[in-house]
Amino acid sequence: MPTRLHLVAGALIVLILAVAAWWLAAGDAHAPTKVEPPPAGDALVIGVPADGKDLLSPVAQSSLDLNLLDLIGVKALENTFDCELKFKPALAKAWSWSEDGKTLRMELRSDLKWSDGKPVVAQDITLLGDLIADPEVGSPHAASYADVNPKARPRVIDATHIEFEFLERTDPTSMIANVTSLQIVPSHL
Description:
By secondary structure, this protein is of the alpha+beta class. It has 4 helices and 6 strands, in the order ααββββαββα. It has helices at residues 4-26, 63-72, 122-133, 172-180, and strands spanning 77-81, 85-89, 92-97, 103-108, 155-158, 161-165. The radius of gyration is 28 Å and the shape is elongated. The protein starts with a helix and ends in a 9-residue tail after the last helix. The relative contact order is 0.15.
């Protein structure tokens, strides 16, 4: 009569044989996969660790979502940091402050188009501000528009000129960063 040791040894042998059969049947399925580079062309392929969740800038909050938006979106101004925050043209090609330092004026480029061919216009920046400030949207970026006059978020002068009117003058770098740090959204959709 088989002892308990015989039963365990037999079960172990059956398990080893089953794993070996599975391994042999799988063949190269467990071998490292050779990844071919994408064909040359007009596409840039960037790998990211996960799918984006919220790719609408007023509600995006994870670093992955914000980084993806930086790759695919356009901001009013781009910023760089080299011991101090500096701004460079993006959608806005020029900007200036009013004499009292409470109104930021921007001249927008007129040569940008959305992927559907519609022009990028000042109303796209206005929609971004409206979405951020709307309590129903619940934007995690609402504080960045807290110092902007609700009636001028921004004020559209024409298709390529806007003004942000701040409630009070603070640090100009922070004021610009607060209203230009997110990607615009198309107002025509």
